[in-house]
Amino acid sequence: EVTRDDPDTAFCTLANREELNPEEDSIHHCLYQFTRNETLTETNKLLCDVCTQRHCGPKNNVKSEKKYVYTNAKKQMLISLAPPILTLHLKRFQQAGFNLQKVNRHIKFPEVIDLAPFCTAKCKNVAEGNTKVLYSLYGVVEHSGTMRSGHYTAYVKMRAMNNHLSDLVLRGKSQASETEPVKGQWFHISDTHVQPVSVSKVLSSQAYLLFYERLL
Fold first, then answer.
1. Which of 3, 14, 49, 141 is the most exposed place for a label (fewest CB within 10 A)?
2. Is 192 helix (H, G, I), strand (E, B) or coil?
3. What's the pLDDT tens digit per position in 49-70?
4. Domain 80-214 has CATH 3.90.70.10
5. Cβ–Cβ contacts within 10 Å for residue 123, how many?
6. Would you say 15 and 131 are in contact if contact means Cβ atoms under 8 Å apart?
7. In this predicted structure, what is the pLDDT of residue 49?
8. In the predicted model, is pLDDT for residue 102 greater than 70?
């Protein structure tokens, strides 16, 4: 879908992302990098239909690809619809010569995360005037081992039903006002072994998948 927004607001977010100053090796830094503003130049220029029509006339008269007009552009990936459940999948591998190598370093992630700095200013399911889009952590998948073999375990929070989340799923909107993590007990699950753990243990895990439920 092609939309033509005002250039002055096209790259605006619900909250000022420039005030983030995200810490290295954190989920905030990953999101900041993923949604950064990019400049498309040289071989990455954008094919512009408007520029082409101005230069060559109606599109039907363009007979050769050489007549298409490419222009410098800015690109940014932002969230246009805040999901009820936020799933973050960390890329835990990198190219090492001709081989793939697992990335084992710890990535910091919070109990409550605000997506507003990564959402478009016109985010479809955020009430007008809201400058926060909050999510509470309820699940983590961790992988131990190498690229060739290993073992998956999970951390899951047992908690009361989130009625606001149900409203969001069923009706597309929520009247939630909570800003604190959803209360509950965390458990570590490895095959048939289940044991209660502290939240500090969860936050120190080497996350591979993160699951958040929307609060606000």
1. 3
2. coil
3. 878 877 776 655 545 555 788 8
4. yes
5. 20
6. yes
7. 80
8. yes
Residue 150 carries which side chain, given as an amino acid letter?
G
String of DSSP letters for 165-187? HHHHHHHS-------SPPPEEEE
Q: Which residue in the block uniquely carries the two structure tokens 């607001």? A: 9
Contacting residues for 173 by C-beta, under 8 A, at least 6 apart: 125, 127, 167
Q: DSSP string spanning 73-122?
A: EEE---BSS--SEEEEE---EEEETTEEEE-----B--SEEE-GGGBBTT
Using alpha carbons only, what angle is made at residue 142 by residues 159 and 195, rounded to the nearest 5 degrees? Answer: 50
Residue 116: partners with Cβ closer than 8 Å, 6 or more residues away: 13, 14, 15, 130, 131, 132, 133
Give dist(CA 210, CA 216) in Å, integer: 18
The residues with which 209 forms a beta bridge, in sequence order, are 89, 141
What pLDDT digit, counting tens, does each position of 136-191 carry?
999 999 998 877 788 999 999 998 877 667 677 666 665 555 678 888 999 999 99
Residues 54 and 85: their CA atoms lie apart, in Å, by 44
